[in-house]
């Protein structure tokens, strides 16, 4: 099997891999911020609920969570699960898992901000929401960007876990081609794809960090 033929078969899987990546970020980044607010809530019940959620999502394998989301509706509610639910389960499990990690990153950034900034904003007449989104949050983003970058790079590689529910992303297709044609080339192509994808993400995030470096 020639390289152009392998690339042609892998192209559809590459698009699905990129789709998992971007949809996970779109849902998990804002959800992580909401969860971080719950984690820092003054209400002890609410705070502990979110603390348990973060502990469970970070303390169990993403692949296990993916299997639970995919097979859970069938075993718990006898729902029919098919191709459409497969993709939904992937996005749900990935988004909820990464939201837990982003929540802790947000929390560390928010709690590192000096209390004096809140007090100064209050004296200037800012509301709590204005203080957070206009003054605190932009500084938090700058501080947490390196940690977020690490998680985003990890996400690129974690997209391959979708093979556990037989979703036809790039790694799954590469395995099938390698098994049927007894060739190692698809795995080499897959490795190059993940490396280039991660390289692009790293370059973009590095440029973003430089743009947010106020002290240059």
Structure keywords:
mainly alpha; MetI-like fold; transmembrane transporter activity
Summarize the structure in words.
With 216 residues, the protein is an all-alpha fold. The protein has a single domain (3-211), classed as MetI-like fold (Orthogonal Bundle). The protein is 82% helix and 0% strand. It has 8 helices and no strands. It has helices at 3-39, 44-59, 62-77, 83-111, 115-123, 128-158, 170-181, 185-211. α4 (83-111) crosses α6. The chain is flat. The protein starts with a helix and ends in a 5-residue tail after the last helix. The model has no long low-confidence stretch (mean pLDDT 89).
Count helical runs: 8
Please name the fourth-level CATH homologous superfamily: MetI-like
Number of strands: 0
Here the CATH topology equals MetI-like fold
Strand content: under 5%
Helix content: over 70%
Mean of the pLDDT scores? 89
Give the N-to-C terminal Cα separation: 52 Å
SSE class: mainly alpha
CATH class: Mainly Alpha
Number of domains: 1
CATH architecture: Orthogonal Bundle
Uncertain regions: pLDDT < 50 for 5+ in a row? Answer: none
Give the helix/strand layout.
Elements: H1 3-39, H2 44-59, H3 62-77, H4 83-111, H5 115-123, H6 128-158, H7 170-181, H8 185-211
Helix pairs in contact: 1-2, 1-4, 1-7, 1-8, 2-4, 3-4, 4-6, 5-6, 6-8, 7-8
Write a compact overview of the structure shown.
Helix content is 82%, strand content 0%. With 216 residues, it is an all-alpha fold.
């Amino acid at each position: 099997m020639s390289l152009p033929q392998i690339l042609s078969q892998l192209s559809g899987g590459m698009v699905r891999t990129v789709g998992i990546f971007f949809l996970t970020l779109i849902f998990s980044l804002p959800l992580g911020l909401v969860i971080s607010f719950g984690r820092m809530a003054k209400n002890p019940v609410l705070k502990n609920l979110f603390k348990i959620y973060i502990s469970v999502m970070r303390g169990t394998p993403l692949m296990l969570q993916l299997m639970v989301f995919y097979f859970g509706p069938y075993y718990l509610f006898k729902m029919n699960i098919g191709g459409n639910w497969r993709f939904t389960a992937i996005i749900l499990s990935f988004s909820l898992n990464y939201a837990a990690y982003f929540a802790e990153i947000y929390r560390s950034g928010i709690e590192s901000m000096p209390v004096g900034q809140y007090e100064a904003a209050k004296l200037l007449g800012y509301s709590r929401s204005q203080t957070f989104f206009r003054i605190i949050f932009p500084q938090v983003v700058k501080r947490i960007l390196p940690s977020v970058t690490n998680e985003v790079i990890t996400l690129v590689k974690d997209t391959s876990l979708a093979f556990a529910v037989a979703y036809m992303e790039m790694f799954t297709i590469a395995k099938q081609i390698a098994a049927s044609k007894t060739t190692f080339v698809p795995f080499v192509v897959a490795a190059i794809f993940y490396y280039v994808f991660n390289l692009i993400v790293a370059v973009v995030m590095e440029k973003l960090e430089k743009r947010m470096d106020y002290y240059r």
